Amino acid sequence: MDPKQPVTLTLWHNYGGQMKDTMDQMIDEFNETLGAETGITINVTSISSSSTLHEKITLAVNQDPGAPALPDITTAYPKTAIKLKEKDLLVDLTQYFSDQELSDYILNFIEEGKLDDNGLYVFPTAKSTEVLFVNTTIFDRFAKDTGARLKDLETFEGIMKTAELYYEWSGGKMFYMPDSLFNVAQIGYKQLGSEFFSEGRLNLSSPLFQRIWNNFYKPAVLGHMAVFDGYASDLAKTGDIVCSTGSTAGVVFFPPKVTYPDNTTEAANYAILPYPTFEDGKKIAIQRGGGMCVIKSHKQKEYGASVFLKWFTAPENNLRFVSSTGYMPVTKEAFGEIMTVRIQNLEDESLKKLLQVVRTMQDEYEFYIPPLYDNLDDLEREYVTSFKKIASKSRDLYFELLEEMDSEQAYKTVSDGVMQQFINGFK
Amino acid sequence: MWIRLFLFLLVLVVTMLVGVVAILMVSGTFTMGLAQSEELVMNDLTYLSTGISDHLGLLSQHAVGFSESLSASIENRLKNQGKSPSHIKYYPELLEDILSEEFERTLSWLLRSNSSGVFVILDATVNPALSYAETSKAGLYIKNMEPNIVNSSTPNIHILRGHPNIARKNMLPLHAQWEMEFDVTDASYFTLPLQASSSTKNLSLSRLYFWTTPVILPGTSEQVMLCSVPLIDSEGNPFGVCGLEISAMLFKLSYAPQNNIYSRAFSVLFCPDDNIIDLSHSLIAGGYSMRNRARNNSHLKIVKGKSSFYSYISDYEDSFLGIHTPVKLYPKDSFFSDQQWMIAIMIPRDDIVNSISRLNIMLFSLLILLLVIGIMISLYLSQRFIKPISQGIDIIKSTGFDDNTSTNIPEIDDLIEFLASQDKKLSQKAVKEPAAPSLLNEFIKNVKTLSPAEKAVFDLYVKGHTAKEIAQILSLSINTIKTHNKRIYMKLNVGSREELLLYINMIKDIGGEFK
Question: Are B340 and B272 in contact (CB under 8 A)?
Answer without folding.
Answer: yes
